[in-house]
Amino acid sequence: MNPTSSFLLLVRRGLRQHLLASLLAALLVALATGGFVTVWNVRREAQRAFTGSVGEFDAVLGARGSPLQLVLAALFHLEAPPGLVDAAEVGRLRAHPAVASAYPLAMGDNYQGWRVVGAPAELLGATEWLPGRRPQLASGGRLFAEDRAEAVIGNHAARRLGVKLGDRIHPSHGLDHAEEADHEESFEIVGVLEPTGTPLDRVIWIPLEELQHLAGHGPHAAESVSAILVKLRPEARALGFQLDREYNRSGQRYTFAWPVAAVLTGLFERFLWFDRVLALGAAVAGGMAALCVLVALHGSMQARRRDWAILRALGAPRGMLLRAVLGEAAAIGAGGAVLGVIVHLGLGALIAGAVQAQTGVLLELPRWDWTLVCAPAAMVALCALAGLWPAWRACATPVAANLAPVS
Amino acid sequence: MHSPTSAAIVVRDLRKTYRSARGVEAAAARPTIAIDEFTLAAGEQLALCGESGCGKSTFLHLVAGILAPDAGTVLVAGEAMAPAGERARDRLRARAIGQVFQTFNLLRGFTCLENLLLPMRFAGSVDEWRARELLVQTGVGDCGRRFPGELSVGQQQRVAIARALVTRPALVLADEPTANLDARHAALALSLLHDACAEHGAALLLVSHDERALAGFPAVRDFAELNRPFAEACAR
């Protein structure tokens, strides 16, 4: 038995004497640690993933309205587009010296609740939606032809709908499914995208003109689009100001949501209060966990005074008792913190799955972050701090008085 | 390591006055120790008897360094227990003294073997083989992995005696070791303590108020004769 093993023995046996209270305290530590690490990492990863899921696009042009609504509608397919844009704007934008490419989108249809978006095939074939990665088609598939009733479906939508190559789908009018709104035309699935971890996975893509000319769409549909995705020339990004001034300040008809990353930051700033509430909740839970450690140790003190007196009588220095009780507090903290990281792994995976199911955006959770070390370490330190008072009481136990027989 | 030739205990001009929690002297209410001279030779065995409250346990605590005296000198195996700082007293107690208590005072959350290994750790040298061997010698060889609460009273007393000897102490202090035992177990425990200390070369200082239990002990002395204030109080 070396000094370390005797220290560990004292800690282990000490914990047994207040096992239930220690387990409860460790559980609170786990919830506090797991909660804090999860809140922190989900926010960070969500911001990274959402900002990284906008492909190469710097801006979105749409009808006058909220830039955030426009970005969420055109790039994340979460909102309704604010209105229509004259199709001629596509040509105007493409001719602008600052613009590298512009892709029109026509939205407003669905297939069993999954969005059907009209777009040029090039949007899928030539655009990097994640840095360095273009969408790939699953084996046997191809992009739709611009002049045929064909469709390419995102991987997640295909799996959920049970749709495969060669199947035909009937889009419905509107963003929510209603059988009476089904269009007469049907589209053959000619391609299924490999998973991209972006909103592409949740969308059914058909040729822009085919969507514009669906029976039931008014005559104005052929001359308008819902939004235009814009990629600026890398060397001319500053010219985005020109377009911003032209559309947002001088014009009244359109909104030029630029830069997309700044618009998304606004989205996350909206949820900042929620982050703060959750972080505050985690901090309160951490404080309560530390308090629980204090109560667990303090509650067992009366019963353990004799043991401490015996240990002292056997020659244990006060410092050893101090360290042992602090060790118990730290062990509760460490056990809870490890459990907290496991809670985080589980919660992170659950949240990532839910976010992907709702938005198509893939959150890489769990993901390495310093909070995975710092938060558990802080909890261990906090618990050890909470153990200071009981530890002091332990080492100050009067020996002679506590060795006497209890009458 | 203690010297085998030094006296196990040398006490000179030992004084201890109890104070109340507020620091007010309450000598009349609590026993006060005033021992001018006391010696226990290496390997010697002595029982101190006296009625309850005469200061026997306090004297043992002073010898063990659990309490610090107000004045005087206590040498254990040739080393100063008093005057000495607390750390030095802890080290000397762990190294040179084994203790048997009235209620055994085994650590109930630790196995019997761990009860023996911990004092060895505090003394700075752990020899698990010796601990197991002592359990065998005291007749509880099969109890190493059991907890004290699972043992009979007699077995607990044997483990307590094994624990007192496990660090090869120069001195064993026994405070009313038979108080909780019936006559048969008391005689057995005293015999075991006596024999074990003799076998291991440890001096034994035992205090008890039960003169009947000490009948067979080789040397018995009245503590009241040793402790001057108590003797004076009794005379008044």
Question: What's this model, at a glance?
Answer:
Chain A is of the alpha+beta class and about 400 residues long. Helices cover about 55% and strands about 15% of the residues of chain A. The model of chain B is unreliable at about 25-30 (pLDDT under 50).
Write the layout of secondary structure elements.
The complex is a heterodimer of chains A (407) and B (236).
Chain A lengths: L2 H14 L2 H34 L6 E5 L3 H8 L10 E2 L1 H8 L3 E13 L2 E6 L1 H5 L24 E4 L1 H7 L6 E2 L2 E2 L13 E6 L11 E4 H5 L11 E2 L1 E6 L7 H11 L3 E4 L2 H11 L1 H28 L1 H13 L4 H42 L11 H16 L1 H8 L3 H5 L4
Parallel strand pairs in A: 4-9, 5-8
Antiparallel strand pairs in A: 1-11, 1-12, 2-10, 3-4, 3-7, 3-11, 5-9, 6-8
Helix pairs in contact in A: 1-12, 2-9, 2-10, 2-12, 2-13, 10-12, 10-13, 11-14, 12-13, 12-14
Chain B lengths: L8 E8 L16 E8 L4 E5 L6 H9 L6 E6 L2 E4 L3 H11 E4 L11 H12 L4 H10 L15 H13 L5 E5 L7 H18 L2 E6 L11 E3 H4 L1 H8 L1
Parallel strand pairs in B: 3-8, 3-9, 6-7, 7-8
Antiparallel strand pairs in B: 1-2, 1-4, 4-5
- Strand order in the largest sheet of chain B: 6-7-8-3-9
Q: What kind of oligomer do you see?
A: heterodimer
Largest interface: chains, residues each: A-B, 27 and 36 residues
Q: State Rg of chain B.
A: 17 Å
Judging from the principal axes of the Cα atoms, what is the shape of chain A?
elongated
What is the number of helical segments of chain B per DSSP (H or I, 4+ residues)?
8
Shape of chain B: globular
Cα Rg of chain A:
31 Å
**H-E string of chain B:** EEEHEEHEHHHEHEEHH
How much of the sequence lies in strands of chain A comes to 5-15%
Percentage of residues in helical conformation of chain B:
25-40%
Distance between the termini of chain B: 45 Å
Give a short account of the largest sheet of chain B.
Answer: 5 strands, parallel
Taking all residues together, what is the mean pLDDT of chain A?
A: 88
* Mean model confidence by pLDDT of chain B: 86
Largest sheet of chain A: 10 strands, mixed
Output the structural class of chain A: alpha+beta
Note poorly predicted spans of chain A: none
Order of helices and strands of chain A: HHEHEHEEHEHEEEEHEEHEHHHHHHH
Number of strands of chain A: 12
